[in-house]
């Protein structure tokens, strides 16, 4: 019994940390003192700030493509000027037929603005309802926080998307690699998906760490 209380407090703190939104900033901005941000670095003296600290130039073009998809996530790690401001963004590019695999962001809602192309775009709610449609250049879809979502380029040319997040560190959990590439015991996967060990082996090879 005496052990229970601290345990419950720990659970509460954990739940609180997981559910809490990014904190309200206490300063106009907080450039991390060591240049690159992690979650809790102190701010450097604000009189040292320059305009360049608030400009990010790394998404003028697409990132490296892999299987027809490229993404440049811009969190406060890549762009320290975002530190404590509760936002971040991503540039994603898809070749024709390319997909952004089903994934979710545990700490952020996303708005995905199609800068170019035609994208079949959707999410799944907690009742397994799919909300999906082809959207095109100039349209925006919102992916509610924590819900699984996906995109596929259904046009004839490359598609480009700007995703914006209401967290400086939204996190991204990709379902194929979280399930088959994480080292979950094979027996669990066999039962969960009704596959045999050979089929599970094939999925593991495909989605495992590379
Ligand atoms: C910040 O830098 C300015 C200019 O160099 C200096 O006058 C000020 O004392 C510094 N503030 C702190 C809190 O170190």
UniProtKB/TrEMBL annotation:
Catalytic reaction annotation: 2 superoxide + 2 H(+) = H2O2 + O2
GO cellular component: apoplast; plasmodesma
Amino acids binding oxalate: 100, 105, 110
SS bonds (residue pairs): 30-43
Domain Cupin type-1: from-to ranges: 57-201
Protein location: Secreted, Extracellular space, Apoplast
Major localisation: secreted
GO MF annotation, one: superoxide dismutase activity
Matches recorded under InterPro entries: Cupin_1 (IPR006045), Germin (IPR001929), RmlC-like_jellyroll (IPR014710), RmlC_Cupin_sf (IPR011051)
Keywords: Apoplast, Disulfide bond, Manganese, Metal-binding, Secreted, Signal
One Pfam family hit: Cupin_1
Keyword Cell division belongs to the record: no
Amino-acid biosynthesis in keyword set: no
Annotated Mn(2+) binding sites: 103, 105, 110, 149
GO terms classed as biological process: plasmodesmata-mediated intercellular transport; regulation of root development
Record's signal peptide: 1-20
Subunit structure: Monomer. In the absence of manganese, it forms tetrameric and pentameric forms which show superoxide dismutase activity.
Function: May interact with bacterial adhesins thereby protecting the reproductive tissues from microbial attack. Has no oxalate oxidase activity.
Record PANTHER family: GERMIN-LIKE PROTEIN SUBFAMILY 3 MEMBER 3
Family as reported in the entry's similarity comment: Belongs to the germin family.
Protein name: Germin-like protein
Organism: Escallonia rubra
């Amino acid at each position: 019994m005496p052990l229970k209380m601290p345990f419950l407090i720990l659970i509460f703190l954990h739940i609180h940390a997981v559910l809490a939104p990014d904190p309200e900033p206490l300063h106009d901005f907080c450039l991390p003192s060591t240049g690159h941000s992690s979650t809790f670095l102190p701010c450097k003296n604000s009189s040292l700030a320059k305009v360049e600290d608030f400009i990010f130039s790394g998404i003028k073009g697409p990132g490296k493509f892999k299987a027809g998809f490229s993404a440049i996530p811009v969190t406060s790690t890549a762009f320290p000027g975002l530190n404590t401001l509760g936002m971040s963004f991503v540039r994603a590019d898809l070749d024709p037929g390319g997909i952004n695999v089903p994934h979710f962001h545990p700490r952020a809602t996303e708005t995905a603005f199609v800068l170019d192309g035609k994208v079949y775009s959707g999410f799944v709610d907690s009742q397994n309802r799919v909300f999906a449609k082809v959207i095109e250049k100039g349209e925006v879809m919102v992916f509610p926080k924590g819900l699984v979502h996906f995109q596929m380029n259904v046009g004839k040319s490359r598609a480009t998307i700007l995703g914006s997040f209401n967290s400086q560190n939204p996190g991204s959990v990709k379902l194929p690699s979280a399930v088959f590439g994480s080292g979950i015991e094979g027996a669990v996967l066999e039962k969960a998906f009704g596959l045999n060990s050979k089929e599970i082996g094939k999925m593991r090879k495909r989605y495992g760490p590379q």
